[in-house]
Structure formats: C-alpha cells, structure tokens
Amino acid sequence: MKNSNKNIDILCVGEVLVDFIGHQNNVLINETRDYHRYLGGSSANVAMNCKRLGLSSTLVSTVGNDGFGEYIFKRLNEVKVNTKHLKKSENNSTSVIFVSRSNGTPDFMPYRNADYHISEDQITTEMLSQTKIFHTTCFALSKNPAQTTILKKAEEAHKKGCKLSIDVNYAKELWETKEQALQVIKNYCQFNPLIKISEDDMLRLFEKQLPHKEIFEFFHNLGVETVCLTLGSEGVKLSQKGKDIIQLPAIKIEKVMDTTGAGDAFWSGFLFAYIKEKSIEECLQIALKLAALKLQNVGRLPNNINILSKLL
C-alpha cells in the first residue's frame, strides 16, 4: 500500500472477549462437558495475528475491569498489540462466549456485556490519519454504541484515504432483526471495504443458498470492488468488479483440530499480504496457508507464523 508515512498498519475496531471452547469434538454445546479458556473475538484475533506477522496493529474495544479483562490485557500485551485504546469498563463485565469444538461451523452461546461499549473518543482523528486499514466485523456492528461509533469513524477513515475492511460474520442471535443487519452492512459497504464472507454467513443472512455469482453481485451493486467468499474445505473464490473470478482450492490437511478462528486467520493473512502490496492471488495464497495452520491448532495460531512474512 502506498502509505509509507502511516504508522498503523491495521486498526481493528470491534469485539474482544473470552472464548470457552469445548474439549469434546464434534458435539453441540448441550453435549459438551468441559471447556478451555482462550482469548477470542474476531477483531482481536485479526489484531493479534497481524501483529505476530510483523505488522503494526492497534485494537479498539472494551473489556470489564475484572479478571477476564486482566487476562485479555495480558495476552494482548504479550504479543505487543497496541492496547492504549482498549477501555476498561467499571459497569460492564468482560464478554464471554461458549463455543463447541467442531470440524464445521461451531455452535456458540454469547454472553455480551463490555465488548460493544465502544465510544467515539476511543478513535481519534489523528489515529485515522495514521491508519492504512480500518477493519471491523458484523459482530461488532450488531449493537450500539459500537455500531454508531464504527459507522461514523469508518466514514471519517474513508475520507482520509484509509482502506476499509469487514468480516461479514453475520449471526442472527446478535441482531434485533435481519433487516437491521442488512441496512448496517449496506451503510458500511458505501465506503468500498475489502469484504470477507463465508458461505455459512450468507446462508444465515439470506436464509437460502445463493449462487456465488449472486452473492458477488449483491456486494458489487453496493459499490464494493473486492469480495472474498470463503468455502471451507472447498477453498475460496474472489471477485473484483469487472474482472474474472479467481478460485483457489483449500490446502489439504490430515486432521482438523478446531475451526474456531480459521476465518480470522485467513483474513489476517490476506490483509497482511495486501498491506505488503502483493497481487490478489498472492494475498489469497498467504491467507489459505494461515487458515490451514489454524485448522491444525486449538485456540491460537502456533508461534512460528512469522515465517510466512519471510516468504514475501
């Protein structure tokens, strides 16, 4: 990216929380006996992954002034993610989510408190002028005040020449109505973000299986140039407005250990390569490598992911 004077590679605005991932594999939550604690939240995962790949990474979110909040600060600081804009709330406890361990899309139960209390004063104009990519998620946009804050700051970032990004990780449990979700997504898309979606996200959002061409057209018609559709074990398709669709297969792995965070790993790899000004196909190849690594590990990515940065 032609922004060498900007010192924040990626500004992640959205959810940070504690994931409790089940020990028992391929069972729903009602059959899961025990859980292990991990730092979670799609926005936080991307911030951490990008930092570990060698980028300058800042997270804007809110935790409770409690034990889980302390745990989150400790984990982020270990990786050296910038936490100066991570707020501690005295009135709201740290958000937690219980997640089943699965080879497919996991079952989950959210208990949200602090994560969506993101206020405008956490994101300054100076920060936005220093940012290359402004990234958020559908999860983060699902509740106010975060929703209003993110949409307002996204517009400001766009006007300052910042590239926007969003993971459209829609889940109906998080929204008042599907219509509200669609309107908020459309509002964000007017700023031409890089879009990451999955087949499962689209099935939940439109409540029917759409042809891939229709999914791409939906976003292109909103003014989005680049749409990345992840297909699980089938790999990925990417559509750039007016160009041929690129399709790449997933990297074959022997055993899937845990799918939680695989999409975040994929998108971290993509954004990392995008910032390094690689071709779109190279961005996808790096993304697929990182996703394959994640699928072979429960919880966080292994420590050696920085070897990917040496491939560029």
Explain briefly what this protein structure is.
This protein has 312 residues and is an alpha/beta fold.
Overall radius of gyration: 18 Å
Q: Helix/strand-derived class? A: alpha/beta
Q: Strand order across the biggest sheet?
A: 5-4-1-8-9-10-11-12-13
Sheet with most strands? 9 strands, mixed
What's the number of helices?
10
- Elements, N to C (H/E): EEEHEHEEEHEHEHEHHEEEHHH
Number of strands: 13
The low-confidence runs, each spanning 5 or more residues with pLDDT under 50, are: none
Question: Whole-Å distance between the termini?
Answer: 14 Å
Please state roughly what percent of the residues sit in beta strands, choosing from under 5%, 5-15%, 15-25%, 25-35%, 35-45% or over 45%: 15-25%
What does this structure look like?
The protein is globular. The longest helix is centred in the C-terminal third of the chain and has 16 residues, at 280-295. The model has no long low-confidence stretch (mean pLDDT 91). Helix 1 packs across helix 8. It starts with 7 loop residues before the first strand and ends with a helix. It has 312 residues and is α/β, with parallel strands linked by helices. The strands form two sheets. It has a nine-stranded mixed sheet with strand order 5-4-1-8-9-10-11-12-13, sandwiched between helices. It has a four-stranded mixed sheet with strand order 3-2-6-7. Helix 5 (178-189) links the parallel strand 9 and strand 10. It contains ten helices and 13 strands.
